[in-house]
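Quick start: read one record
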Amino acid sequence: MRGSPGDAERRQRWGRLFEELDSNKDGRVDVHELRQGLARLGGGNPDPGAQQGISCEGDADPDGGLDLEEFSRYLQEREQRLLLMFHSLDRNQDGHIDVSEIQQSFRALGISISLEQAEKILHSMDRDGTMTIDWQEWRDHFLLHSLENVEDVLYFWKHSTVLDIGECLTVPDEFSKQEKLTGMWWKQLVAGAVAGAVSRTGTAPLDRLKVFMQVHASKTNRLNILGGLRSMVLEGGIRSLWRGNGINVLKIAPESAIKFMAYEQIKRAILGQQETLHVQERFVAGSLAGATAQTIIYPMEVLKTRLTLRRTGQYKGLLDCARQILQREGARALYRGYLPNMLGIIPYACTDLAVYEMLQCFWLKSGRDMGDPSGLVSLSSVTLSTTCGQMASYPLTLVRTRMQAQDTVEGSNPTMRGVLQRILAQQGWLGLYRGMTPTLLKVLPAGGISYVVYEAMKKTLGV
């Protein structure tokens, strides 16, 4: 193997690693010991191939684990794969990976990173202070690491939409060519849809309370969280807290599918002769795809608001609600609030991505291994950035909800300007944030449920 030490030295090194991982000194390394050892060494999560090898491949013992010979065989195969990866990144073939080569590798994937960011990534693997990575440093860093290639490094920071906290205005997720070829993309979409459905159902009472306060709360009635919950329970019982949840879950599948297909088509149109999209171009493509999906499924948004606010016995179901709106108000009512909804995508997506990029840079500057933020770090980053995005677009969201809830039979056809002026005149600037408290209370449980269910679904679907 070109660039590798002799067999004797390699086996000595593997033997030392085996002894370090074999904590109970039974002559075998199992998955539990592998995880404990990597935690001590600061190596993050074990490579899935190592877990599979330890649990089944070449293991004659039904209790699991690998002896020294089996462990050495696995490491030999692993080093061969790592050497191929190393040579693919070492573009000038000088035996070292430098900062410019790291930047070029990320650029080839459509991601622009600064010199400082590239230096932080290199520093996490550079042990001799040369600001380059040689084969030994690369091998030791990734030998039992969960990353298979440079593209995998981006997956940890890829801004995923699976952490569903109820507002689907985010830019669609990016799938690699490998994920598309292997069919993993649709499994990830299914896992995300199931996670979103469970998350929305689990936090439906807070979502209905948010809409209830957006429409009914004012300075005069001083409606708060406990008062709103009490009013809803007294009017319709405990089950009424889940009104509107059915259609809220139902619209996940069409919206995700439309957004994904539109994103792929828009991306192709922007690409032209380019190999990859820049970050700004991805943002434009994602925003246009989100706007396309929102335009097509927007009548479901109006129906969701009406069903969420309905009184007991007002509608027999989804179809009856749609029929009554069409008979009494016409088809245009199904697009009431469309303009503030579209305008809300801009501050939401800009703030969301800006905060996420800031957190990404903070992680890099902390000196930690950029390739292995914990699940808690990733969950916290996405949750915080999404929350900031919601706060930035919340006034427009409130205006949209007020417009969706108004019946033209009871008053004049509402306009965005008219609703905004009425809120400011009657309640002041704070009126634009009515219902914000249940929105914030919903963030953590919604994100947590979505994350846990998504991970469970990935395992179930074999992602």
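The two ends are 32 Å apart (CA to CA).
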